[in-house]
């Protein structure tokens, strides 16, 4: 490790924060960054800190820790409602940010964060790791040269499984609000947020002003406030719909994907695998695998070498309009008792047939109610969506 490694403070080192610690360790070994501090309400034990990271300073006081360590970067991986205040604390001290997704629980909080960061003049990267995939520019190049004809829309599908303990791991899990504060921890806005953000990115709809309307359908099989089985259709300024269907109650969980529909073909992107399938008229199927740029490394290179940031706050404005539509929608409806069952031994709830519905929604750009799901309510009518 060289002396030029940028000091990093990690806020939120348990849960998904463990992934960030391992990633920091990987980059520390390469001399890109070094872990200078950990911010947790309860300090990590020695056994909780991976080998090779030394003994970083620990404190529950985020601002004081940033000052004491001389941090250049803060990685914020804390509960969703805390993102904005922690980001602004870092920005006020001139510390650059990698902010976990979703960046905020409401569009107003998102704007407060993004505007504050911009005024402070610090760099902010939003943690949609899939948007660092080299597959995205490759897919855009295929689209631009007409490989699948005219692009008519983009679908996204995420059929995952979460057991009932998932919703008991932290107080805010599966909540729309907690103690009067927005949380919006639903399938579309958190676990499968990458499917939404990636579909919007490939649909050319990234900024808030690119969104003209949003329809949502939200349900839950689990005993939670938020949605675990849901879909959304975004009307874009380009006129091409983006439909994403998600469930955490899949019968057979599988890799999520985004599907670009063209007039003479389609492109399937399994974004967690950086794998692309091109299918087009007059050609056999072609499959490609790509690498990806790590977002923390990209942020570090932005600071040291001037590399362009991959996921700025403004480029997630369209995703945040979806979060806002989910937040403002009527509370998700519970699925009727006969629409789900528990799997013995797995302590999780399954919605029979939902895997096929998720795939069909991505394939047809239709909502669950339009696919005659027996439990689906009529779709919420699209409305004009404010860009501010």
Features:
alpha/beta, globular, six-stranded parallel β-sheet, GFO_IDH_MocA-like_dom, single chain, Dihydrodipicolinate Reductase, domain 2, disordered C terminus, 9 helices, 20 strands, 388 residues, 2 domains, Rossmann fold, ten-stranded mixed β-sheet
Write the layout of secondary structure elements.
Layout: E1 6-11, H1 17-29, E2 33-39, E3 57-59, H2 62-69, E4 73-76, H3 83-92, E5 96-99, H4 107-120, E6 124-126, H5 135-144, E7 151-159, E8 177-178, E9 181-182, H6 193-202, E10 211-220, E11 229-236, E12 242-247, E13 257-262, E14 265-270, E15 275-280, E16 286-289, H7 295-305, H8 317-328, E17 333-334, E18 341-343, E19 348-350, H9 354-364, E20 383-384
Parallel strand pairs: 1-2, 1-4, 2-3, 4-5, 5-6, 7-12, 10-17
Antiparallel strand pairs: 7-13, 8-9, 10-11, 10-20, 11-12, 13-14, 14-15, 15-16, 18-19
Helix pairs in contact: 3-4
Describe the fold and architecture.
- This is Gfo/Idh/MocA family oxidoreductase.
- Keywords: Oxidoreductase.
- The C terminus is likely disordered.
- The longest helix is centred in the N-terminal third of the chain and has 14 residues.
- α3 runs parallel beside α4.
- Strands 7, 10, 11, 12, 13, 14, 15, 16, 17 and 20 form a ten-stranded mixed beta sheet that branches. A six-stranded parallel beta sheet has the order 3-2-1-4-5-6, with helices on both faces.
- It has nine helices and 20 strands.
- It is an alpha/beta fold and 388 residues long.
């Amino acid at each position: 490790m060289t002396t030029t490694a940028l000091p990093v403070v990690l806020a939120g080192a348990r849960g998904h924060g463990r992934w960030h610690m391992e990633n920091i360790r990987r980059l520390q070994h390469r001399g890109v960054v070094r872990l200078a501090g950990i911010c947790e309400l309860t300090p990590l034990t020695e056994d909780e800190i991976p080998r090779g990271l030394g003994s970083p300073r620990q404190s529950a006081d985020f601002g004081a820790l940033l000052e004491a360590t001389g941090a250049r970067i803060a990685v914020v991986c804390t509960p969703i409602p805390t993102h904005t205040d922690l980001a602004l604390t870092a920005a006020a001290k001139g510390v650059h940010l990698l902010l976990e997704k979703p960046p905020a629980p409401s569009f107003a909080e998102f704007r407060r964060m993004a505007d504050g960061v911009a005024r402070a003049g610090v760099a902010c990267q939003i943690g949609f790791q899939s948007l660092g995939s080299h597959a995205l520019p490759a897919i855009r190049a295929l689209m631009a040269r007409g490989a699948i004809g005219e692009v008519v829309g983009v679908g996204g599908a995420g059929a995952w499984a979460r057991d009932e303990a998932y919703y008991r791991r932290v107080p805010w899990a599966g909540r729309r609000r907690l103690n009067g504060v927005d949380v919006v921890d639903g399938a579309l806005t958190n676990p499968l947020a990458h499917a939404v953000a990636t579909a919007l990115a490939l649909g050319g709809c990234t900024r808030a002003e690119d969104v003209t309307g949003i329809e949502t359908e939200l349900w839950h099989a689990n005993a939670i406030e938020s949605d675990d089985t849901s879909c959304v259709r975004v009307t874009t300024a380009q006129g091409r719909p983006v439909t994403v269907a998600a469930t955490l109650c899949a019968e057979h969980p599988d890799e999520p994907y985004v599907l670009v529909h063209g007039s003479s073909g389609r492109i399937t992107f399994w974004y967690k695998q950086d794998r692309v399938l091109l299918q087009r008229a007059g050609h056999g199927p072609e499959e490609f695998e790509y690498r990806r740029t790590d977002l923390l490394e990209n942020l570090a290179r932005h600071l040291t070498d001037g590399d362009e940031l991959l996921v700025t706050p403004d480029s997630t404005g369209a995703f945040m309009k979806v979060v806002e539509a989910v937040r403002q929608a009527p509370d998700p409806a519970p699925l009727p008792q006969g629409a789900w069952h528990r799997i013995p031994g797995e302590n999780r709830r399954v919605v029979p047939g939902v895997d096929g519905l998720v795939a069909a929604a991505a394939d047809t750009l239709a909502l669950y109610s339009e696919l005659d799901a027996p439990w689906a309510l009529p779709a919420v009518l699209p409305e004009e969506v404010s860009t501010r």
